[in-house]
From TrEMBL:
PROSITE patterns: ABC_TM1. It comes from Leucobacter chromiiresistens. GO terms for cellular component: plasma membrane. GO terms for molecular function: ATP binding. It is a multi-pass membrane protein. GO terms for biological process: D-methionine transmembrane transport. Its main location: membrane. This is D-methionine transport system permease protein. It comes from the Bacteria.
């Protein structure tokens, strides 16, 4: 208990919380944008899509299926050489954010595709029948109509990325997960471990609540 009080008083818990939120927000911002583009492409290039292209779909589908199932701790090691090329280092915060973004991109792509496929084909066909081109159909019909489920998908992805940050210590990152492991688990201090866990739960609950509210309003339009 004394160790927990010390960590609270010297600001390490606040610092770890800020680090976790920073990792997740940047990864979701970059990975969310890239995943949205990739997910839309998967949706519109599949058979029957507004930009049907078997070759493009097969390649994109293969990439998503290849990278998405890789456990995050293994992915960290596997793409460390790529991280060095892109962000200049294979360890530390920049490398961690790169790997988080990489993982989020492919995970979100599949979520976006699955949720956009719930849009009734009749709505898209009606848009095409009224003379809308493929790009206009995508931007004004497909994405807006699937936005509610997509928001819930992003909420799920946000929580998954929070879980991934627990592995930050593997490559010298920080955050609540690393704090729980370093000062809680390794020092046999359950007070610190559970304090970090409860703080993560609070963050997740707030994000889930916000996602539910936004999705509910979008679905009621």
């Amino acid at each position: 208990m004394d160790n927990l009080i010390e960590l609270l008083s010297n600001g390490k818990f606040l610092e770890a919380t800020v680090q976790t939120l920073t990792y997740v927000v940047i990864a979701m911002g970059l990975g969310g944008a890239l995943g949205l583009v990739l997910g839309v492409l998967l949706t519109v290039t599949r058979q029957g899509g507004v930009l049907q292209s078997r070759g493009v779909y097969v390649v994109l589908n293969f990439l998503v299926n290849f990278f998405r199932p890789i456990p995050f701790v293994i992915l960290i090691a596997a793409i460390q050489p790529l991280a060095r090329v892109v962000v200049g280092t294979g360890i530390g915060d920049r490398a961690l954010i790169f790997v988080l973004t990489f993982a989020a991109t492919f995970g979100i792509a599949r979520l976006v595709e699955q949720n956009l496929l719930t849009v009734p084909p009749g709505v898209i066909e009606a848009s095409r029948a009224m003379g809308a081109g493929p790009l206009r159909t995508i931007l004004t019909v497909l994405i807006p109509e699937g936005l509610g489920p997509v928001v819930l998908g992003y909420t799920f992805a946000f929580i998954a990325v929070v879980d991934m940050t627990a592995m930050a210590g593997v490559i010298g990152g920080g955050g609540l997960g690393n704090l729980a492991l370093q000062y809680g688990y390794r020092q046999f201090n359950p007070w610190v471990t559970w304090a970090a866990v409860l703080l993560i739960i609070v963050i997740v609950q707030l994000v889930q609540l916000l996602g539910n509210v936004i999705a509910r309003r979008l679905l009621r339009r």
